[in-house]
Amino acid sequence: MNVLIAVLRELIGLFVDDGWLALMTLAVVILAGVIATLMDFQLAAGATLLFGCIGVLFANVARAARRG
Fold first, then answer.
1. Residue 59: pLDDT band by 50, 70, 90 thresholds?
2. For a FRET experiment, which of 15, 21, 37, 59 has its CA 20 to 30 Å from that of 48?
3. How far from each other are the two terminal CA atoms of the chain, in whole angstroms?
4. Which long-range contacts (CB under 8 A, 24 or more apart) does 1-4 make?
């Protein structure tokens, strides 16, 4: 049973290594979806998705650089 739990933790760790990065990326995707739905302006939603994900990535790299 312990081996199964260890394998599952490793598998989850492959997809969610940094919880903050995953949470912020999910927030950007939700925001882009809301913009696409409410504004009916897909270009703004695409720009939000692109620049939001790039911004989240840069913020995560900056946090990692400060930590280590």
1. very high
2. 15
3. 34
4. none
Its pTM stands at 0.73
How far is the C-alpha of 45 from the C-alpha of 6, rounded, in Å? 39
Question: Contacts by 47-55 with C-beta closer than 8 Å and gap 24+?
Answer: 52/28, 53/25, 53/28
Residue that has been written with the tokens 């492959």 in this structure: 14
Residues 41-53: tens digit of each pLDDT:
889 999 999 999 9
Alpha helices in 2-68 (DSSP H): 2-15, 19-39, 42-67
